[in-house]
């Protein structure tokens, strides 16, 4: 059951459906009646990407075409802008393979840019050698009519560091999934996310972290702002296997719902089979604080400005955790654009 | 300046203001004193337009303009400022950002140009110094983790920077020690002027030793039941509100 094989075989029966526990809020089987024809080659010039100025290498995958094998040798640092473009109403799948040798570092600036009513699937495999470090920043701007599923498999090594911040404004149906094999051994993981959804957008941020060894660290903070008839989904699972002692894992998910018809579905899960662990999770879904809104308005801010200021501050606490200075500013601007009137 | 006539207002269907009338001319400071539950905070929220405070009768005008018809932010742009009894904590928004956003919104609403960043910072430094506020504190999220006294000082700082024309101080003395009370009062007194008016809402006479009112009104049972000069505050301090509560 996967979108990749469904696209390949043009077989809707292979699509994940609400009967699959992991997909019950992001049902593709019920949405897609007929899988479209394979996408034609990308037409025209996509222009420059937002992260291009920060990157030493730009890798573009357009309508599933293009090669994306990235290797960072031991001890080196790379800045890569990875652009995943979708255009038109066809279906396509893309694969990305990223490998870091021991001690290598990568700043990965990943964007999803879409136009049309496509069905797109992207598989990423990221493998980090010992002591390697990745900061992955994802800006997902799929089109309102697009279906987009991104699935990353991350394999850490001892003493490696993987930090991720995903920002999305959703799509017709969109899921950004990250699965991490965490060996412990003082490897550290940060998995953050922000969803800013309006109209009928749907975004699903799903993460699964499996701690298999002692001394692993995981920190997770996801925040969402949902208005109109949009729907945000957060599924976060942290598994601590037997023997993965001294695992330290924290998970937080907090969402603001700004209209009666918007929806947030959240499923934080901690599955702990080890004895000596420190795990915590917090989950809140609520409205914007009316008292704070009145306070800001009393000082002169019109309602829309006050709401923008407070919601920007709310998600700003996630954006602040981005290490790369220029990328952080850029991401903050991207979020502000989607929250301001 | 402010003219309130026969104002009636409800909260959750319960009438709190029951025909309140009050006039505060430009250049004057009026104190409103009264027992708990008399409607003091309700008056401040009705004048500033908070949701949930429903006006069922009467009028309130500022320089002849119907205040009650205006949105809260428009009232602010017209110069109405409320110093909150319990200032809100705004996580993630540095005090400077909050104040600059508010100031520029007011300026836009009045058709004025936005303040430049250097001019704003200069103004902020100047006012913070006068209120003995460490400038670095203005870079922190507004009121988050601030003590009660710091929050009140931050209210007065906002007031000084926004430079309103009609100031409402709601229990500004609560939570202040004597030193902080003096600093805050100096800040308020610095704003006194012929073009401004103030309404000082307080439960105790203490604040009025520092911010000397021209007139004192007693609010009880949702109406002004007595008005007089500054001596009225001393009389209340000595004899309490009991006889006014009975009158109401």
What is the end-to-end distance of chain B?
Answer: 27 Å
What characteristic shape of chain A results from the CA principal axes? Answer: globular
Q: How many angstroms does the end-to-end distance of chain A come to?
A: 41 Å
**What is the helix content of chain B?**
25-40%
The total strand number of chain A stands at 17
How are the strands of the biggest sheet of chain A laid out side by side?
A: 1-3-5-7-9-11-13-15-17
CATH architecture assignment of chain B: 3-Layer(aba) Sandwich
Number of strands of chain B: 10
Looking across the biggest beta sheet of chain B, what order are the strands in?
6-7-8-3-9-10
Number of discrete domains of chain B: 1
**Beta-sheet strand percentage of chain A?**
over 45%
H-E string of chain B: EEEHEEHEHHHEHEEEHH
Strand content of chain B: 25-35%
Instruction: Indicate the structural class of chain B.
Output: alpha/beta
Largest sheet of chain A: 9 strands, parallel
Describe, in short, the structure shown.
The complex is a heterodimer of chains A (341) and B (248). Chain A is mainly β. Chain A contains four helices and 17 strands.
Please describe what this structure looks like.
The complex is a heterodimer of chains A (341) and B (248). Chain A has 341 residues and is mainly β. Chain A is built from 4 helices and 17 strands. Chain A has helices spanning 3-9, 290-298, 303-319, 325-339, and strands at residues 57-62, 69-72, 77-87, 91-100, 105-115, 119-128, 133-141, 147-155, 161-168, 173-182, 188-197, 202-211, 217-226, 231-240, 247-257, 263-272, 277-286. In chain A, helix 2 crosses helix 3 (303-319) and helix 3 runs antiparallel to helix 4 (325-339). The longest helix of chain A has 17 residues, at 303-319. Chain B has 248 residues and is of the alpha/beta class. Chain B has a single domain, classed as P-loop containing nucleotide triphosphate hydrolases (Rossmann fold, 3-Layer(aba) Sandwich), CATH 3.40.50.300. Helix content of chain B is 35%, strand content 26%. Chain B has helices spanning 40-48, 72-77, 95-109, 117-130, 148-162, 178-190, 231-239, 242-247, and strands at residues 2-11, 14-24, 29-33, 53-62, 65-66, 80-83, 166-170, 197-202, 215-220, 223-228. Chain B is globular. The model of chain B has no long low-confidence stretch (mean pLDDT 93). At the A-B interface, helix 2 and helix 3 of A face helix 2 and helix 3 of B.
């Amino acid at each position: 059951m996967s979108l990749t094989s469904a696209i390949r075989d043009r077989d809707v029966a292979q699509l994940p459906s609400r009967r699959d526990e992991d997909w019950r809020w992001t049902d593709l089987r019920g949405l897609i009646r007929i899988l479209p024809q394979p996408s034609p080659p990308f037409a025209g010039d996509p222009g420059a990407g937002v992260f291009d100025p920060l990157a030493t290498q730009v890798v573009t995958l357009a309508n599933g075409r293009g090669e994306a094998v990235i290797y960072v040798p031991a001890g080196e640092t790379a800045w890569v802008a990875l652009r995943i473009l979708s255009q038109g109403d066809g279906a396509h799948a893309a694969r990305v393979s990223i490998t870091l040798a021991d001690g290598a570092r990568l700043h990965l600036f990943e964007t999803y840019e879409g136009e049309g009513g496509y069905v797109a699937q992207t598989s990423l495999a990221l493998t980090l050698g010992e002591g390697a470090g990745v900061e992955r920043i994802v800006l997902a701007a799929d089109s309102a009519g697009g279906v987009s599923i991104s699935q990353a498999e991350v394999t850490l090594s001892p003493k490696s560091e993987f930090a991720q911040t995903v920002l999305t404004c959703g799509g017709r149906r969109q899921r950004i999934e990250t699965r991490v094999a965490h060996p412990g051994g003082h490897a550290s993981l940060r998995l953050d996310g922000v969803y800013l959804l309006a109209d009928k957008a749907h975004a699903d941020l799903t993460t699964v972290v499996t701690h298999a060894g002692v001394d692993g660290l995981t920190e997770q903070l996801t925040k969402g702002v949902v208005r109109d008839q949009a729907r945000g989904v957060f599924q976060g699972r942290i598994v601590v296997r037997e023997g993965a002692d001294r695992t330290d894992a924290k998970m937080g998910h907090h969402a603001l719902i700004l209209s009666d018809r918007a929806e947030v579905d959240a499923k934080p899960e901690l599955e702990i089979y080890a004895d000596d662990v420190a795990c915590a999770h917090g989950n809140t879904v609520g409205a914007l604080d009316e008292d704070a809104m009145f306070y800001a308005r009393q000082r002169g801010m019109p309602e829309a400005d006050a709401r923008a200021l407070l919601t920007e501050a709310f998600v700003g606490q996630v954006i602040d955790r981005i290490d790369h200075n220029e990328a952080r500013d850029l991401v903050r601007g991207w979020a502000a654009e989607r929250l301001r009137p | 300046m402010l003219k309130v006539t026969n104002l009636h207002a409800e909260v959750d269907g319960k009438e709190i203001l029951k025909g309140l009338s009050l006039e505060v001319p430009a250049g004057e400071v009026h104190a409103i004193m009264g027992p708990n539950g008399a409607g003091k905070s309700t008056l401040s929220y009705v004048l500033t337009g908070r949701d949930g405070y429903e006006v069922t009768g009467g009028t309130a005008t500022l320089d002849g303009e119907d205040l009650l018809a205006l949105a809260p932010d428009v009232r602010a742009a017209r110069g109405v400022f409320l110093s909150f009894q319990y200032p809100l904590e705004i996580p993630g928004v540095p005090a400077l950002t909050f104040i600059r956003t508010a100031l520029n919104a007011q300026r836009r609403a009045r058709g004025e140009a936005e303040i430049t960043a250097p001019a704003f910072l200069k103004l902020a430094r100047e006012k913070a110094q006068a209120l003995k506020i460490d400038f670095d504190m203005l870079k922190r999220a507004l009121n988050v983790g601030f003590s009660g006294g710091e929050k009140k000082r931050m209210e007065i700082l906002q007031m000084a920077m926004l430079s309103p024309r009609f100031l409402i101080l709601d229990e500004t003395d609560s939570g202040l020690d004597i030193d902080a009370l003096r600093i805050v009062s100096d800040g308020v007194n610095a704003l006194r002027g012929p073009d401004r008016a103030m309404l000082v809402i307080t439960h105790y006479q203490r604040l009025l030793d520092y911010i000397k009112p021209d007139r004192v009104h007693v609010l009880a049972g949702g109406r002004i039941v007595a008005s007089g000069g500054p001596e009225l505050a001393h009389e209340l301090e000595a004899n309490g509100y009991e006889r006014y509560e009975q009158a109401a």
